[in-house]
Amino acid sequence: MTAYLKLDHIDKVFTRGAATTEVLKEINLTIEKGEYVSIIGHSGCGKSTLLNIIAGLTNATTGGVLLENREVNSPGPDRAVVFQNHSLLPWLTVYENVRLGVDKVFARTKSRAERDAWVLHNLNLVQMAHAKDKRPSEISGGMKQRVGIARALAMEPKVLLLDEPFGALDALTRAHLQDSVMALHQKLGNTILMITHDVDEAVLLSDRIVMMTNGPSARIGEVLEVPLVRPRKRLELATNTTYLKCRQRVLEFLYERHRFVEAA
Amino acid sequence: MNIPATKIELEIASPAAVAAPVVALTPKRPPRTEAYARMARETAVRVIPPLVVIALLTLVWELVCRRAGSALPPPSKVFKDTKELILDPFFDHGGIDKGLFWHLSASLQRVALGYSLSAIAGIALGVLVGQSVWAMRGLDPLFQVLRTIPPLAWLPLSLAAFRDGQPSAIFVIFITSIWPIIINTAVGIRNIPQDYRNVAAVVQLNPLEFFAKIMIPAAAPYIFTGLRIGIGLSWLAIVAAEMLIGGVGIGFFIWDAWNSSHISEIILALFYVGIVGFVLDRVIAGLGKVVTRGTALN
């Protein structure tokens, strides 16, 4: 099978004055269409840098990103990002935030009425249509993140990039949103790349888990397949042996072999 | 031995099965008179203290200035001397012998023109300086020096350049009020969160769309801070500039009153200047609130 998204020998070096820090070293990864891949690692290992490189917000020092065999090195709606802190524009309503991207992406291909319907359709997908005229300051953190997801989905990205999308949420809201993302993935078949530092989240949602070693010069330490059938049910998995084994593998990687030395 | 386990499951399942009864509460609205009474109380709390202070200060002023040989007139005399000016602000006897309304409106027109120019130029330059590191390095030292020049120091130069009072006054307003607008706009642009820039990059907004949809709304609170300081400064500048330039205007009215030793008229004019300045400040503040929709500070 040909790779849909391919990360080819990515190195990233930050240079500040005379000091250089090598953040990422030799990152190679291929992702197939419709796959859900998580990248997990301790904080500071460069996962977010990697996501920014894929999104085109930062450039790799060497190596590159290929999406459908075309190199990408600038940001674009084909790699929509759901940011950790939602990044909704506070002066726009929920509807307008989603509409902003839709208007740009479908300026030529959809009529005004179609774009309006498409925005509402995507808000419905994340169950946020009821709050379409509210401003971000008037809705909860979980709702903001839903709108962030709707904004990204509405751009019909080839790859959906999630940058610790549930990191800032409380545990209950997080679980709820994870279920929503799972359902959306099931329904729409998006290719999703998610950055996370939550082991359960990675195992529950992913087809494959990419484990990163600690920086500097972080590389891919191990890639774990999660052979659980979909749709997955959170409660049933709690006692599923495959689930527990996968979880165990990730925990061992993170806490035995690549312990976060700086952690106090 | 299986029975207890099943029982637990049943117990767990049962609360979900029975829907919690919805208790409907009819909101009890307080009687209308009570609402009015509360509104009146809230207004009184805001209005009464300044009124008391004003009354006390007027009383002190009256007592201090009432004795014979006092250099300044007491409020009672001020009122008596300027009664005609207060009651009829719209008379027009030609030349500069006009009612206060005409003087104020002439000054306000100059301010409106000079301030509009400085708002447009100030925001444009502020965006440039905020967005481009090289523009900032080149222009910022210049701005920091120029902004300390007092308004009236510009006047001789502008009279020399324009050879006419009207454009000179407008230029003085422009040059006085532009600096805080430039500086605050630049700070606002520089403080646009990287997140918003990332969103714009992913959506692929072109520079014009970025300017209109991200930059201006994100920097709006800062821009309006600059605009508010600017309007205050331009009102300061106009009164001073008009004193020197002459013609119809509240500044020259004050100067003219001084030359004719009408101290009461000066005092009246000062009241008007203060009140108009206050209103201008509030108008810009209100405009800022409407434009940023009160959400910009999130």
What does this molecule look like?
The complex is a heterodimer of chains A (264) and B (298). By secondary structure, chain A is of the alpha/beta class. Chain A has eight helices and ten strands. Helices cover 80% and strands 0% of the residues of chain B. Chain B has 298 residues and is an all-alpha fold. The two termini of chain B are 58 Å apart. Chain B has helices at residues 2-17, 32-66, 75-87, 100-131, 133-146, 151-162, 165-190, 194-203, 207-245, 250-259, 263-292. Chain B contains eleven helices and no strands. Chains A and B meet through helix 2 of A and helix 8 and helix 9 of B.
Outline the low-pLDDT stretches of chain B.
Answer: 1-17
Morphology call of chain A: globular
User: Based on helices, strands and strand pairing, what is the structural class of chain A?
Assistant: alpha/beta
Count up the helices of chain A: 8
SSE order of chain B in H/E notation? HHHHHHHHHHH
The percent of residues in helical segments of chain A reads 25-40%
Radius of gyration of chain A: 19 Å
The number of helices of chain B is 11
